[in-house]
Amino acid sequence: MSNATDLYTIGQLAQRTGLHPRTIRFWSDSGIVPPARRSDGGYRLYDAEAVARLDLVRTLRELGLGLDAVQQILEKRPR
Fold this sequence. Notes:
With 79 residues, the protein is mainly α.
């Protein structure tokens, strides 16, 4: 990652975070970590905010919180 305007694919996020691409896709489909936009080919693209959000979600899940609780926390978190 070189700057905040970079966009990343699910595969690149998986390498960066150590999460499985299916997990990222599931969290994306659930609205927990929405893509910044889609490529011309329809692929999801994520920005630096999504990377930070993924890190937070992973940490909250590792602490034992369920997805409903994670969503509630993220809704209360200022952007």
